Amino acid sequence: MAHGEMSRRENRQVAVAAATLGPWRTAAGVGAVVGATDLAIELIDGDWSLSMLAGPAGWGLFFFFLVGTVGARLRREGGDKRLRRWANEHPWQAALPAAGGLLVLNTLAQLFLGDAGVFEAFFESLFPAAMLVTVAGVVGSVKKARGKD
Predict the structure, then answer these.
(1) How many CB atoms lie within 10 A of CB 32?
(2) Which among 8, 36, 65, 75 has most CB atoms closer than 10 A?
């Protein structure tokens, strides 16, 4: 189905469905390891408070979504072939659901675990979400340009 044949709503639904193609168990493991490593560094630092959990949570979430999203772009088997083909044809759109998830969850982590207010937590979360879209979009675009499927 061509991009022009689908409504905006259908494009969003396909993008969210394409996000399920990633290696999310592996992504959860990588996110947990990165978050735990950052927490260990925070513990060694010695400034103990609840706000010390905000940074490790943010790093863990970023790497969880990064590995899951980029892994979905690089995967060749598994999942629905039509979803994979759509995600390969629309790499930037396919990266948006994960970036939105990262933006929301990281904002909540910064808000409830850190010392940030609502706007500060939101703006702190914009940069990692933008980096996720950029990395996943570039990986998908390079894959599309090279014709790898």
Answers:
(1) 13
(2) 65
Give the Cβ contact number of residue 82 at 10 Å.
12
Structure tokens at 43: 């513990």
Burial class of 79 by CB neighbour count within 10 A (0 to 12, 13 to 18, 19+)? middle
Cβ neighbors of 147 (< 8 A, separation 6 or more) are: none
Alpha helices (runs of H) in the chain, residue ranges in sequence order: 8-18, 24-45, 54-74, 81-89, 91-113, 118-146
The model's pTM:
0.86
**Rounded Cα distance, 147 and 149, in Å:** 6
Write down the residue that tokens 């010392």 correspond to. 115
Contact 59, 108 (CB under 8 A): no
Tens-digit pLDDT profile for residues 18-36 = 777 788 899 999 999 999 9
